[in-house]
Batch of 2 targets.
Target 1
Amino acid sequence: MHILCIGNSFSGRYLARHFNSVTVSFVSRDPDLLHRQKLRVAQPDRDRYDGILDCVPPLANGDSIEWYSWPVIRSCLERQGTDLPLVHISSTSVFEGCQAVANHISDLPQCDEATPVKPGLRGARRVALETELRRLWPASWIVRSCGLYGPGRNALTLLTKAAPGFLQAEERVVNRIHVHDLLGICLALMSAYGSSWPTAERLLHACDQNPVRNRELLQFLQDTHGRHLQALSTTRLDPEIPAGTTGNAAGPEPGYQGYLVQSCRAERLAVPLRYGSVLDGLGEPLEDLLTET
Ligand SMILES: NC(=O)c1ccc[n+]([C@@H]2O[C@H](COP(=O)([O-])OP(=O)(O)OC[C@H]3O[C@@H](n4cnc5c(N)ncnc54)[C@H](OP(=O)(O)O)[C@@H]3O)[C@@H](O)[C@H]2O)c1
């Protein structure tokens, strides 16, 4: 299977290096970097592809958005025909405005593919691009990714870079998706492309099944990797939380904040997730988590 990946992205590199049955060719703003990273440079006017994976985010350009993928996609469609599967990776940040607080996790707002979007500033650009792509190419699949993580890009690597701020809101609940599972979903959609999915339903949420609060994630990292991480890290995990305890167990339990991302279509696609929770994904050996492979 030969995939054209638009953007030298974390996802595309993982696809190229971990899915043996797939050849990946890249379009990038920096072809020299592709060469240095030993990634295949696409030749869209000569190659034949079995699918296109678009990883390029929409960028602000005054009042409009900038997105360099469409001319590449259009020329491939013109050359190869309209059956060429196209998957664009969007983001569940289109629900940023749904955030709420609750006493129990199941009382947080639940957002599936049928839920009306409620974006903040960042998410608004995603919504604009989703709408534009629908208009340009209704047959395309849009996959909304939750917090994407994997080897070399995850909560642990952020901690080693002294960037723990993202975990400070302990009550925040976040759905995540391991890059392996995101790509499994994208490949399955490409295979199912010509099937009977109505075009209006070609939108899928890629999300884990058991989102956790930052509080539980931090505790897990402390318990599982804390000792090793402190040797590597410029930022320590909270030294007040000894391994195996719940930190401020005597204090009141913080509540839950955020929204829950779900999919009402994933079951129909029937792609089993390797990592149902970020706690599974970050339970891998430390050396496998710290560097992108
Ligand atoms: N990381 C997350 O938690 C998360 C969550 C939800 C959705 N997403 C989205 O899912 C898609 C795939 O994620 P990913 O992590 O695999 O992608 P990534 O590593 O962030 O790469 C995105 C690619 O888009 C291209 N690009 C063009 N203009 C850019 C700009 N101004 N800033 C950054 N990149 C630009 C770049 O390719 P070239 O430099 O090769 O042109 C870049 O390599 C992206 O659209 C991402 O934003 C990510």
Target 2
Amino acid sequence: MAAAMAAACCGLEKETVMGEQKAPGACPRCGGAVVATDVESVRRVLCCLPLCVKNKRKFSCARCRRSLAALSTHA
Ligand SMILES: [Zn+2]
């Protein structure tokens, strides 16, 4: 219990899904539709002090859920 709380407090990268939308292109594996997922990532190194916040856009296949190439964008 104590170890889990410590892990939740320090050195954890928390990701929050901001939204999903259809993306152009098709899955190279099954040809299914590509979905772009916007994720806000907050990396905490010191307790309760966010040092790095960045928005990422992840691409995955809507049919087979394979993770496709990810792009990083600055907020
Ligand atoms: Zn697929």
